[in-house]
Write a structure and sequence with these properties.
Elements: E1 2-6, H1 32-42, E2 46-50, H2 56-68, E3 72-77, H3 86-93, E4 99-104, H4 117-126, E5 132-135, H5 142-150, E6 157-159, H6 173-182, E7 188-192, H7 210-220, E8 225-227, H8 240-250, H9 256-271
Parallel strand pairs: 1-2, 2-3, 3-4, 4-5, 5-6, 6-7, 7-8
Helix pairs in contact: 5-6
Length: 273
């Protein structure tokens, strides 16, 4: 089993200002030795560590951890995809075998960001280096994301956190329509991750997620979905065990092959782990 999406950080209140006072439970360090016991407990072989800070220092930090801990199978870092010296920086990163792709926190960007020609060209360039792109957006950004994906059809794209539907309000009509359109792009996969933090943090129930998971499996099939914990951010609303159990219980009646795909094989193939 592979956890396709989790984070590490040494908490810095200035750099990590997005972790506000409503999130005190994650206002401290989270490092590999904090995570490994849970992987041992639940039979998870390894993970993909994903950037949380938008700097190349973050990329170097994650790669250094990956060097020290074998269970970190891949790193999704950050790089300025709009930079004039992007090619030079990508060549630099070819020396790091565990560097698998990049992500930008588009959910925090203004409308129109995904239509920036420099950004689109930067994402296209990832294909030349056999690198992936993690698309982090809210559900209301999906229309723009569809136009973006249309222009990067040769790049392996994975949507983080189901594109953050409004699970708390149970609204899903526009999300459903846009995600259905997104699933028609064969280069696009989706992570089953980050669900609990889009629900009511204190009052969520496992059945709150069923309608969204039903739609995802109908759209993408087991072949283009991958499990991710979003640890430690998930701790805002659930323990590691609780968020994992949502997926395992939902898939209890699935075939062994389908479980194998979602729980690890798809992540291995997508990220070339």
């Amino acid at each position: 089993m592979i956890d396709s999406h989790q984070h590490f950080w040494k908490y810095n209140p200035v750099r990590d200002a997005w972790i506000n006072d409503d999130m005190k439970v994650i206002q401290h360090d989270f490092l590999p030795l904090d995570l490994k016991p849970m992987y041992d407990q639940f039979g998870i072989e390894g993970c993909v560590a994903v950037q949380a800070d938008q700097s190349e220092d973050e990329t170097s930090f994650l790669l250094s951890l990956a060097d020290q801990f074998d269970f970190i199978k891949g790193v999704v870092g950050w790089i300025d995809l709009r930079s004039n010296n992007l090619t030079e920086r990508l060549i630099h990163y070819t020396q790091f075998k565990k560097l698998k792709g990049f992500r930008h926190v588009v959910q925090g960007e203004p409308k129109g960001f995904l239509m920036n020609p420099e950004f689109i060209n930067g994402v296209r360039k990832l294909r030349e280096f056999n690198l992936t792109y993690d698309l982090l957006i809210y559900h209301h950004q999906l229309e723009e994301a569809l136009s973006f994906v249309h222009q990067v059809r040769d790049v392996k794209i994975v949507i983080d956190h189901l594109a953050k539907p409004s699970i708390k309000t149970k609204e899903k009509t526009r999300w459903e329509l846009n995600m259905a359109a997104m699933s028609t792009f064969e280069n696009v996969s989706c992570k089953i991750s980050g669900m609990v933090t889009e629900a009511d943090w204190k009052k969520w129930k496992p059945e709150d997620f069923t309608p969204y998971l039903d739609e995802l499996f109908e759209m993408f099939g087991a072949e283009r979905l991958m499990y991710g914990s979003d640890w430690p951010v998930c701790l805002l609303a659930a323990s590691y065990e609780q968020q994992l159990s949502i997926v395992t219980h939902y898939m209890a009646s699935f075939s062994a092959r389908e479980k194998q795909l979602v729980n690890g094989e798809n992540a291995r193939k997508f990220y070339n782990l």
